[in-house]
Amino acid sequence: MEKFILNGKLVDRSEGYVDVEDRGYQFGDGIYEVVRVYNGQLFTNKEHLDRLYLSAEKLSLQIPYSAEELTKQLQELVTVNQLNTGIIYMQFTRGTAPRKHQFPETSHLTFVAYTNEVERPIDHFEKGVSAILVDDIRWLRCDIKSLNLLGNVLAKQQAAEKGCYEAIQHRGEIVTEGSSSNIFIVKNNELLTHPATNLILKGITRQVILKICDEHQIAYREETFTIDDLLHADEVFMSSTTSEVTPIIQVDQQKIGNGTPGALTRQIQKYFDQEIEKQTKQVETTTEK
Ligand SMILES: Cc1ncc(COP(=O)(O)O)c(C=O)c1O
Prior knowledge:
This protein is of the alpha+beta class. 33% of the residues lie in helices and 29% in strands. The chain has two domains: 3-117, D-amino Acid Aminotransferase, Chain A, domain 1 (2-Layer Sandwich), CATH 3.30.470.10; 122-276, D-amino Acid Aminotransferase, subunit A, domain 2 (D-amino Acid Aminotransferase, Chain A, domain 2), CATH 3.20.10. The chain has helices spanning 23-27, 45-58, 67-80, 122-127, 150-161, 204-215, 227-231, 263-288; strands at residues 3-6, 9-12, 30-38, 41-43, 86-93, 110-117, 129-135, 166-171, 174-178, 182-187, 190-193, 220-222, 235-240, 244-251, 254-255. The strands form two sheets. Strands 7, 8, 9, 10, 11, 12, 13, 14 and 15 form a nine-stranded mixed beta sheet that branches. Strands 2-1-6-5-3-4 form a six-stranded antiparallel beta sheet. The longest helix has 26 residues, at 263-288. Mean pLDDT is 96; it is low at 285-289. The protein binds pyridoxal-5'-phosphate. InterPro entries: Aminotrans_IV, Aminotrans_IV_CS, Aminotransferase-like, BCAT-like_C, BCAT-like_N, Class-IV_PLP-Dep_Aminotrnsfr, D_amino_transT. It catalyses: D-alanine + 2-oxoglutarate = D-glutamate + pyruvate. Its EC number is 2.6.1.21. Keywords: Aminotransferase, Pyridoxal phosphate, Transferase.
């Protein structure tokens, strides 16, 4: 039987329940993270936990575990569930309290984590995906990885109804990010992506890509770009923990470039694969000692 973590303890998945007055359930008052697992090992776990603590701080949530304690719990979960390729989903809510909007005087955070098998979307990496453009109707704190995802849900639903994989959001003329990804465009061999302000989530995959650019002298700017820039870009790709570096070859029925994944996108995918290999190898070496 698959296990999950409930408030620091490993329990059977069937034993889990959410109190009707859990603030995550009623208000979306909580935060979450998704960590990729490759070869049974956590990828960019430190970066995800750093962002988790930052989201917690922005919402005055006190996570009762250190990063080391949390990592140990997550690693144990992956081991008992014998997860090879997949994800860990974890969330902290402000806990259970009588329903009032303001923070309760006393409450204990509810912590839940579980694993799912998720294969790498190789077909998407190779062929690319289509997207639509939608108005960004979300709140102004998209930098917090909060449980409130209704704006994102509605955007992704519109994409799904049009047979597309992602919805690219924009505020006026400015492209912000995908419904569950960051967006990059390539023009004249230079990458452009929205700066990490309150209007987007500072993606971990985005950070890895920018590190790759620094290491391989690929030019980039963290600057806003317009819908017109997007539609006339040489290449477009999205980045996220589960989608990694996925080429976008069509937006609102319009082909991007020649309608196939671009050369620089492919190069970055290759470097990203190397990063996965490097990180999983490093962990193996540590375990061997
Ligand atoms: C709104 C949004 N932006 C960006 C991302 C990409 O972030 P990461 O690369 O950390 O998965 C996500 C991931 O779920 C997201 O939901």
